[in-house]
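debug: dumping io for the single-chain case to check the tokenizer round-trip. Nothing else runs in this session.
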Amino acid sequence: LIDIEVDRRTADRLNAVSARRRYFPFADEIIDWSVPLSDDWSYMPDGHSVLSGSGLLERLAPAERSFVERWEMTQLMRNIAHGEHLLNQGILAILWVTDPMDPSYRYLLHEVAEECQHMAMFNEWVRRNDDIVAADMGEALWGKAAGDGTEDLAMRLPAAFWVNVLLFEFVGDDFNHALKADPDGRLHPILVQIGKVHTAEETRHIAYAKAWLESGMAKLDDAQRTEVQTWTRLGAQNLIDRGAFLPVRFSDQLEPYLTRDEFLAARATSPAGPRMLRQLKALLGDFEALGAVDGATMRRWEDAGVFG
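debug: decoded output
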């Protein structure tokens, strides 16, 4: 069995909240899936679209803009579950080597169940938007290898696994909050409800991962700490190079509204990229304080201006 680096009191508290505040996405009072997907709504929160700030959305007729935003949201929903799939595989691997009497065992089962519901929730959105062709990320080629690697890492060096979890969940949390907030009431109600569900439950998941690192990083030897820092550098550099939380690629469904060149130019200058990188910098600052990223790497990124 492995040492669980989250104290029993924290795990008990998260268990109690998970049992008390449940958000089953197919209960009508949680998400009302009956609201029509009409052109009367917006489908991307302000400043988070790959087309934000380009003027391309503003030149479209309201119905056209609504479709283009719904197209983008559906691309994201199609692929956002991959990170949660890998997270679940890592957690399920950890459960093999966790004392079932430890309260973390029960909490991690809660987290797996919640992530499965999130995956079903995202998939339901994609299914209901069946007029949109949502592109995959080639997961049929890399998914099994990534899953096997995640399981191995979670059992061998859990701190590195939780670093990867936070690089996915914390960095993506800004988008969830933007869906939930909907300050001007223009977003489709289903998306607002998805944002509320996702934000509430991811808050617990983020808290658990941070608690593990806050305790566990100090107990690693030099070689283990160096490996965690390597995983942090690789994961963060991937986000920096991509300039986006998830890739969104042009498709022929957009051709009536904009050209490929216009799409690529807009994506390269969208404020969504800098917004994500600011979120990443905040997380990496926490990692540096814990020793999960080395100071030299942080200074190199900062000197290069990658965080804006």
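debug: round-trip ok. The radius of gyration is 20 Å.
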